[in-house]
Design goal:
There is one protein chain. Helix content is about 35%, strand content about 25%. The protein is of the alpha/beta class. It has a domain of about 180 residues: P-loop containing nucleotide triphosphate hydrolases (Rossmann fold, 3-Layer(aba) Sandwich), CATH 3.40.50.300. The strands form two sheets. Strands 5-6-7-3-8-9 form a six-stranded mixed beta sheet, with helices on both faces. It has a three-stranded antiparallel beta sheet with strand order 2-1-4, covered by helices on one side. Strand 1 and strand 2 form a beta hairpin. Helix 3 crosses helix 4 and helix 7 crosses helix 8. The protein is globular. Belongs to the ABC transporter superfamily. Keywords: ATP-binding, Nucleotide-binding, Transport.
Length: about 260
């Protein structure tokens, strides 16, 4: 593992509700190195998304220490240290695809020529060159999600956080986007944190798979992948892939999870 870009030490998060405290995370210890692809998997409500949101300063831990690029999550957010891709594309329907990708660059004050250069670059990265003038409703669900990824890449943050970005897509489109995401990761060398409910997706994409328990969310096992970084879809039929998927499934069962 390279230099740590995300580090959690005894991180906990308790929400106060009218029905009493809800313990979402407890004693989460994790170190993510530069350039890793780390997936989080576990049953619904186990804290996968909550932990990703704490990294992005969308939630604030109530215990422990969390750092992103050596800063607090809030400082990292202000420094634009990461891009965040949500479950739904969240594209503004009245803006073109290029206009949606441009939005964070406009907010950050990039001059127009630089915005145009970056838009062209990231649309090419996600294989959407030529679609910048289209509106979201003119694109398929998979293309909209690729546009969402392009928007998160536009300001060239070192870290990409992705919360089940392909969960609502059919299996064929999902496979294609998994391949595209690995190709993008290989080209950019970014550090990726990825939440999923799918064991095959986690195994196919990741250098490490973080298995989480039911609430309060804890890390029950971190599974290292022996698979090569160059992964055609056919690798899913290999003995190594099947063995790794079995190991993750067993880790979920041991933690009283499901897939």
């Amino acid at each position: 593992m390279g230099e740590a870009v995300i580090e959690a030490r005894k991180v906990g998060l308790t929400f106060q509700t009218a029905d009493g405290p809800v313990h979402a995370l407890k004693d989460v210890d994790l170190r993510i190195g530069r350039g890793e692809f780390v997936s989080f998997i576990g049953p619904s409500g186990c804290g996968k998304t909550t932990f990703l949101r704490t990294i992005a300063a969308l939630e604030t831990p109530t215990a422990g220490v969390l750092s992103v690029n050596g800063m607090t999550p809030d400082a990292a957010r202000r420094a634009r240290a990461y891009g965040y891709v949500f479950q739904a594309p969240g594209l503004y329907p009245w803006r073109t695809i290029a206009g949606n990708v441009s939005l964070p660059l406009e907010i950050m004050g990039f001059p127009r020529p630089e915005r145009q250069r970056r838009i062209a670059e990231v649309l090419e990265l996600v294989d959407l060159s030529g679609f910048g003038g289209r509106f979201p409703w003119q694109l398929s669900g998979g293309m909209q999600q690729r546009a969402s990824i392009a928007r998160a890449l536009a300001f060239d943050a070192d870290i990409l956080l992705m919360d089940e970005p392909f969960g609502a897509l059919d299996e064929i489109v999902r496979d294609r986007l998994n391949e595209a995401l690995l190709a993008l990761w290989a080209k950019t060398g970014k550090t990726i944190g990825f939440v999923t409910h799918s064991i095959p997706e986690a195994v196919y994409l990741s250098t490490r798979i973080v298995v989480m328990s039911p609430r309060p969310g804890r890390i029950t096992r971190v599974v290292d992948s022996p698979l090569p970084r160059d992964r055609p879809l056919e690798i899913r039929d290999s003995p190594d892939f099947i063995a790794l998927a079995h190991e993750v499934r067993e880790a979920l069962r041991e933690g009283h999870g499901d897939d």
